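It is worth pausing here to work through a concrete case rather than discussing structure prediction in the abstract. The textbook approach is simple: state the sequence, then state the predicted structure, then interpret. We follow exactly that order.
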Amino acid sequence: MEMYEYKIVPAPNTGLQKKGLKRIEDRFAAQLEQAINALAAERWEYVRTDTLPCEERAGLTSKTTRFHTLLVFRRPLPGAATAAEAAALIPAGPPPVAGPRDAEKPAGEMLSVLREIKGPRPDPDAPAPKVPAPDAPSRG
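Step two, the predicted structure:
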């Protein structure tokens, strides 16, 4: 699976002053096109546009919610494995499955094998180890 880094930039909110563009929609589209093409030159791929709320202060004590339009871009991380490279790292074939011989082992033997792998089980009746509080001064 390919890994990406993302870049989020505010969408332009004014149109571009350009000769031949008379309508506001055309000026705005030209400004947006220029912003997307500038990032595309840096190898950023346009993903989508999102409009998200942002709580802002209005005066000394009140708050208001404003909506901001953001452009989302992404590009592959350098050195990240592509999907084909990641698939090559995964071993071929199905995962190992417990066979009939494993089913014949008694439960006690299976538990002893697990204890060897995981280590002994903690005693539930044993007192918990005392850990000093992070802010408590040490007494010595």
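Step three, interpretation. DSSP finds four helices and three strands in the chain. Residues 24-40 form the longest helix (17 residues).
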